[in-house]
Amino acid sequence: MGKAAWQVPLYVSVAWVLMVSYQMFTETAVKSLINFINILWPFIGEWLIYRVGMIVFVSAFAWVFVLSSALPSVILGRERSVLVQFFVCLTLTFLAFIAFDSLKAYGGHVISYMLSFATLLENPFAALAYLSMPYIIMFAIDLQTRKRNKKRKALENITNVYLEDAAAAE
Q1: 106-138 pLDDT, tens per residue?
Q2: Of 27, 62, 67, 126, whose CB is crowded by the most CB atoms within 10 A?
Q3: What is the pTM of this model?
């Protein structure tokens, strides 16, 4: 319990800061990528321009999902409910949107300074890399989990074979 007492607030704070910052830069990255696609394939670009809000939401949701998928593990341990994970993820997504709007409304000077870093994302390749991060992290977590499960299953098989051989030898 002692480890979780400092780990949970730290993790929630870091996740919240990352989500808010991701929310601030996602729209710039999405628009940059859509403008680049519009140059290459105008029909697809035009279709995407009308769906910027949805694309921003899905991108922000992907990042929030990555951050919040580990949160229930920290709070609840390995046994976690899918519904709890979904509601945590959905809540954090809406909090990120609300926090960004609040910062824009009340933090004028600070938010304008922070948003000046968004000019880096006007490069479509940097924008693509930025928007790909949550999906790359999801893929890496999935591979790591599969590898861990494979090792655990191999160890269980070795243990079962040993126990069967020991029982047969008696």
Answers
A1: 766 666 776 677 788 889 999 999 899 888 888
A2: 67
A3: 0.67
